[in-house]
Design brief:
The chain is mainly alpha-helical. It has 2 helices and no strands.
Length: 100
């Protein structure tokens, strides 16, 4: 009887150790995935800022009104689309999600 208890105890201890290792591995994978997600969000935010800066076109001067330069360029159209998308989706930079 005493030997059976020792075997049961060892089996339980091994099972608990294995589950602890699996749980630790799971937490490491979760941390890695969270880090990757934060990097993607940061890159996306940086991309939006960069594209907005690069596509900014100065407004035409009064002397240019009625000339060819008064016609909206593709860059101006892209800036308008980015601004419209930002209005629809809301400010992305200020969001701070503490999802635990």
């Amino acid at each position: 009887m005493h030997l059976e208890y020792r075997r049961m105890y060892r089996l339980i201890a091994r099972t608990a150790a294995r589950q602890d290792r699996q749980y630790s591995h799971f937490l490491e994978r979760l941390d890695h995935a969270d880090q990757q997600h934060q990097e993607v969000v940061a890159l996306h935010t940086k991309f939006l800022r960069t594209i907005t800066k690069e596509l900014q076109v100065p407004t035409p001067a009064l002397a240019e009104v009625g000339t060819r330069s008064a016609v909206p360029s593709p860059a101006e159209s892209a800036v308008r689309e980015v601004e419209q998308l930002r209005r629809i989706t809301g400010p992305q930079e200020e969001e701070d999600c503490n999802c635990n």
